Amino acid sequence: MLPVSPITTSIFDLFKVGPGPSSSHTIGPMKAAFDFRERLATLPAGQQAHADAIHVHLYGSLSATGKGHGTDRAVVAGLLGWQPESTDPAALLNLLRDPSQTYAIQIGGKTVALGPEHIHFERVRYDSPYHNTMVLRLTEQGETLYSEEYYSIGGGFIIRKGEPVVDPATVSVPYPYGTMAELKAQLAHHNLPLDALLMANEMALTGRTRSEINHRIDQLLDFMHKAVRRGLRHNGTLPGSIKLSRKAPQLYRQAKGMGQLGPALRSDSFLIFLNAYCLAASEENAAGGIVVTAPTSGASGVIPGLTYLAKHQFHYDKATLRSGMLAAAVIGFLVKHNASISGAEMGCMGEIGTASAMGAAFLTRCAQPTGSILTIEAAAEIAIEHHLGMTCDPIGGYVQIPCIERNAMGAVKAYNAFLLATAGSASKQKISLDAVVKVMKATGRDMSTKYKETSEAGLALSATEC
């Protein structure tokens, strides 16, 4: 029997390039604002002529922590016509720096105003199916001429209210699946390795050739590793009121220096290298640098750190790294499809928990040429299981504390999940990935909104001590 709702997400939708610090608060709103700009350009000339301003209303955690995440700057950037992958991070950080500045937004032949006073961080409860909601309005003397409502659902994915829902049955992939059980059934029925099934589906979804897909995966890895290298070089403090000092360069120097010491300390250097790589990418994200959502910007240190380690410490070749990325992607697909990767929906288990599971799958696939799906599933399940209930409570709304160190911890858990899964018989694992994702979804539903990206509880209340 074919799955009722097959996964039709592309690897290039899951792994997106853009500026930090948050995929749901930065990349998503930028994409929504850009889409709104494009729609305004198609309005009748008469309607455009009467407009004098654009107003943006942010709700949920977009309002609660949007300032710290740079949501207001992202919206301005999108309305100016900027897109995430091509955005200059320095230019983005300069937006709204002068509170008196008003930006001229071009709509057809008309220019309308947008300034800080037009961006509203709403504190009232808004009736919406998603936590992160934004409403954009084209106005004349405050009266709405045209509006759209958008939802930022994590990982840079957005939904426009009223947009036709794509019927999965109309999207054809050769090997449809919606759960890990269905994926395993497809692999067994067609006697296919995981790489081949995922590549065939990706080719059908994107229309790209195998060579084009491999080239783009290589590009994504390059973007990730550039973020790591930048982070290893940059010292100083991160933007924002916390004034958090970067740690990655110091850790990296420490790890390199341990090579001259005794065997016990040399073994510790492995973990310090991994920590340095993850912190480096996460600190670049916190600074608003270009990163890759993996699956979100808040979790954009785990996969880059592990892949950098795999390339430079384990010396895996490009083909092996690509296979690992495909395995990581399928875990991200399954969580997104059956639960959520959004911190506003799931807390940090949706972000770091998913990234850790993806990292565990990556390591397992790279280490095993045959790519046993049972072992990959076991590694991913173990990683998610030990992130269940993790809150998202960033201090000051910045993706810094506890987010940066949490990326390093998620990578270490991924490595341990890989060790645990490959040390025993994966077929004897008692909990399936599908089961733990179901538990994850229920846990996220039960978790108080105070612990889901709103900075209203938990560590966020320690802001006065920073």
From TrEMBL:
<keyword id="KW-0479">Metal-binding</keyword>
<keyword id="KW-0408">Iron</keyword>
<keyword id="KW-0004">4Fe-4S</keyword>
<keyword id="KW-0312">Gluconeogenesis</keyword>
<keyword id="KW-0456">Lyase</keyword>
<keyword id="KW-0411">Iron-sulfur</keyword>
<dbReference type="InterPro" id="IPR051318">
    <property type="entry name" value="Fe-S_L-Ser"/>
</dbReference>
<dbReference type="Pfam" id="PF03313">
    <property type="entry name" value="SDH_alpha"/>
</dbReference>
<feature type="domain" description="Serine dehydratase-like alpha subunit">
    <location>
        <begin position="190"/>
        <end position="460"/>
    </location>
</feature>
<dbReference type="GO" id="GO:0051539">
    <property type="term" value="F:4 iron, 4 sulfur cluster binding"/>
</dbReference>
<dbReference type="InterPro" id="IPR005130">
    <property type="entry name" value="Ser_deHydtase-like_asu"/>
</dbReference>
<dbReference type="GO" id="GO:0003941">
    <property type="term" value="F:L-serine ammonia-lyase activity"/>
</dbReference>
<protein>
    <recommendedName>
        <fullName>L-serine dehydratase</fullName>
        <ecNumber>4.3.1.17</ecNumber>
    </recommendedName>
</protein>
<dbReference type="GO" id="GO:0006094">
    <property type="term" value="P:gluconeogenesis"/>
</dbReference>
<dbReference type="GO" id="GO:0046872">
    <property type="term" value="F:metal ion binding"/>
</dbReference>
<dbReference type="Pfam" id="PF03315">
    <property type="entry name" value="SDH_beta"/>
</dbReference>
<comment type="pathway">
    <text>Carbohydrate biosynthesis; gluconeogenesis.</text>
</comment>
<dbReference type="InterPro" id="IPR029009">
    <property type="entry name" value="ASB_dom_sf"/>
</dbReference>
<comment type="similarity">
    <text>Belongs to the iron-sulfur dependent L-serine dehydratase family.</text>
</comment>
<feature type="domain" description="Serine dehydratase beta chain">
    <location>
        <begin position="10"/>
        <end position="162"/>
    </location>
</feature>
<dbReference type="InterPro" id="IPR005131">
    <property type="entry name" value="Ser_deHydtase_bsu"/>
</dbReference>
<dbReference type="InterPro" id="IPR004644">
    <property type="entry name" value="Fe-S_L-Ser_mono"/>
</dbReference>
